[in-house]
Amino acid sequence: MAFQTLCKQKYLAEGESVPFLIDGAEVLVLWPDGGQPRAFVGRCPHEGQSLVNNSDFNGRILVCTVHGWVFNGRTGEGLSPTGCRLREFPLRLTDDGRVEIDLVAA
Protein backbone atom coordinates (compact mmCIF):
# COMPACT_ATOMS: atom_id res chain seq x y z
CA MET A 1 0.00 0.00 0.00
CA ALA A 2 1.16 3.51 -0.77
CA PHE A 3 -0.09 5.67 2.08
CA GLN A 4 0.42 9.43 1.92
CA THR A 5 -0.45 12.18 4.37
CA LEU A 6 -3.92 13.65 3.90
CA CYS A 7 -4.06 16.03 6.89
CA LYS A 8 -3.53 16.33 10.61
CA GLN A 9 -6.11 14.52 12.71
CA LYS A 10 -7.05 17.76 14.48
CA TYR A 11 -8.79 18.87 11.27
CA LEU A 12 -11.32 16.02 11.53
CA ALA A 13 -14.15 15.78 14.05
CA GLU A 14 -16.61 13.05 14.93
CA GLY A 15 -19.98 13.53 13.25
CA GLU A 16 -18.57 15.66 10.42
CA SER A 17 -17.51 15.32 6.80
CA VAL A 18 -14.39 16.97 5.40
CA PRO A 19 -13.69 17.29 1.65
CA PHE A 20 -10.23 17.00 0.13
CA LEU A 21 -8.66 17.25 -3.31
CA ILE A 22 -5.52 15.11 -3.41
CA ASP A 23 -3.59 14.16 -6.54
CA GLY A 24 -6.57 15.31 -8.61
CA ALA A 25 -9.02 13.03 -6.77
CA GLU A 26 -12.02 14.30 -4.86
CA VAL A 27 -12.11 12.58 -1.47
CA LEU A 28 -14.76 12.86 1.23
CA VAL A 29 -13.72 11.86 4.74
CA LEU A 30 -16.66 10.99 6.99
CA TRP A 31 -16.31 10.47 10.71
CA PRO A 32 -19.57 8.79 11.72
CA ASP A 33 -20.89 9.21 15.26
CA GLY A 34 -19.36 6.51 17.46
CA GLY A 35 -17.17 5.22 14.64
CA GLN A 36 -13.84 5.80 12.96
CA PRO A 37 -12.99 8.15 10.08
CA ARG A 38 -13.60 6.66 6.63
CA ALA A 39 -12.46 8.01 3.24
CA PHE A 40 -14.63 7.65 0.16
CA VAL A 41 -14.38 8.71 -3.46
CA GLY A 42 -16.06 12.12 -3.52
CA ARG A 43 -18.39 11.29 -6.40
CA CYS A 44 -21.87 9.79 -6.30
CA PRO A 45 -22.09 6.47 -8.18
CA HIS A 46 -25.38 7.58 -9.73
CA GLU A 47 -24.16 10.16 -12.25
CA GLY A 48 -20.73 11.06 -10.91
CA GLN A 49 -21.96 14.21 -9.18
CA SER A 50 -19.49 15.74 -6.73
CA LEU A 51 -20.24 14.80 -3.13
CA VAL A 52 -17.62 17.31 -2.06
CA ASN A 53 -19.93 20.13 -3.19
CA ASN A 54 -23.33 18.43 -3.15
CA SER A 55 -23.86 16.37 -0.02
CA ASP A 56 -25.22 16.52 3.50
CA PHE A 57 -23.88 14.35 6.36
CA ASN A 58 -25.70 14.14 9.70
CA GLY A 59 -23.17 11.94 11.51
CA ARG A 60 -24.83 8.72 10.36
CA ILE A 61 -25.93 9.03 6.75
CA LEU A 62 -24.68 10.90 3.71
CA VAL A 63 -27.18 12.30 1.21
CA CYS A 64 -26.25 13.34 -2.32
CA THR A 65 -28.26 16.53 -2.61
CA VAL A 66 -28.39 16.42 -6.42
CA HIS A 67 -30.71 13.40 -6.75
CA GLY A 68 -31.31 12.30 -3.15
CA TRP A 69 -29.26 9.10 -3.06
CA VAL A 70 -28.55 8.03 0.55
CA PHE A 71 -25.47 6.19 1.89
CA ASN A 72 -24.45 4.66 5.22
CA GLY A 73 -21.65 6.86 6.64
CA ARG A 74 -19.90 3.90 8.28
CA THR A 75 -19.75 1.61 5.25
CA GLY A 76 -20.56 3.64 2.14
CA GLU A 77 -23.35 1.16 1.38
CA GLY A 78 -26.31 2.53 -0.55
CA LEU A 79 -29.47 2.81 1.54
CA SER A 80 -31.68 4.42 -1.08
CA PRO A 81 -31.38 2.94 -3.56
CA THR A 82 -29.83 -0.30 -2.35
CA GLY A 83 -27.36 -2.28 -4.41
CA CYS A 84 -24.78 0.49 -4.77
CA ARG A 85 -21.96 1.79 -2.63
CA LEU A 86 -19.32 4.48 -2.42
CA ARG A 87 -15.78 3.35 -3.26
CA GLU A 88 -13.61 3.52 -0.16
CA PHE A 89 -9.95 4.42 0.21
CA PRO A 90 -7.86 2.80 2.98
CA LEU A 91 -7.33 5.37 5.73
CA ARG A 92 -5.21 5.22 8.87
CA LEU A 93 -4.44 7.44 11.83
CA THR A 94 -0.78 7.57 12.87
CA ASP A 95 0.62 7.80 16.39
CA ASP A 96 1.94 11.29 15.64
CA GLY A 97 -1.53 12.65 14.74
CA ARG A 98 -1.50 12.40 10.96
CA VAL A 99 -4.26 11.01 8.75
CA GLU A 100 -2.92 8.94 5.87
CA ILE A 101 -4.71 7.67 2.77
CA ASP A 102 -3.93 5.11 0.09
CA LEU A 103 -5.36 6.37 -3.22
CA VAL A 104 -3.97 3.42 -5.18
CA ALA A 105 -5.89 0.72 -3.30
CA ALA A 106 -9.39 2.03 -4.04
UniProtKB/TrEMBL annotation:
GO molecular function, one term: metal ion binding
Signal peptide positions on this chain: none
Record flagged with keyword Metal-binding: yes
Sorted UniProt keywords: 2Fe-2S, Iron, Iron-sulfur, Metal-binding
Rieske domain location: 4-100
Keyword Iron recorded: yes
A UniProt-annotated Pfam family: Rieske
Transmembrane segment boundaries: none
PROSITE patterns recorded: RIESKE
Name of the protein described by the UniProt record: (2Fe-2S)-binding protein
Natural source organism: Candidatus Macondimonas diazotrophica
Lineage of the organism: Bacteria, Pseudomonadati, Pseudomonadota, Gammaproteobacteria, Chromatiales
